[in-house]
Amino acid sequence: MIVRVALDSNIIIYAEGLSDDPRNAIAQDLIDALSADLLIIPLQAVAETLQWLIKKARLPRSEAAASASHWTHRYAVQATDHAVMSSAMELVSSHDLQTFDAIILAAAAEARASVLLSEDMQNGFRWRGVTVANPFLTPRSPLIDSLLRS
Questions:
Q1: What is the pLDDT of residues 10-40, one digit of tens each?
Q2: Residue span of the structural domain in which 21 resides
Q3: Do 16 and 49 contact (CB within 8 A), yes or no?
Q4: Each residue of 46-82: b (16+ CB within 10 Å) or e?
Q5: Which of 13, 19, 69, 100 is the most buried (most CB within 10 A)?
Q6: Structure pTM?
């Protein structure tokens, strides 16, 4: 079975490696271990990453845009279209998710991802075939171990 994996913005931000946080290495190692053609980047995650690079990392806008652009050129991107937004509104109202988290999870489902790597959402939450997995938990989730083996 082919497992497609979507990335939340926090995973991308850690993978950018702009701090000494141990999560940087975990995020980068996980992304490197996964096949690039199986990774999905929700467009909302790219927008949040760009905003973080400008506001929090204080990168020049051109450098931040180039970094964000790297993700959209290297991996498949799932747009935030009407179907994604409708599903996100359902998640917000039915599961009490934050709006932008809901958009990212809905985009992952629309792209037929099996896993959404995220630090922000509830580990193990499952919706429309997508399971949220936090790669930073100790002990590591069996789902993360299976991704690394495949």
A1: 999 999 988 778 999 999 999 999 999 999 9
A2: 5-149
A3: yes
A4: bebbbebbbeeeebeeeebeebbeebeeebebbebee
A5: 13
A6: 0.95
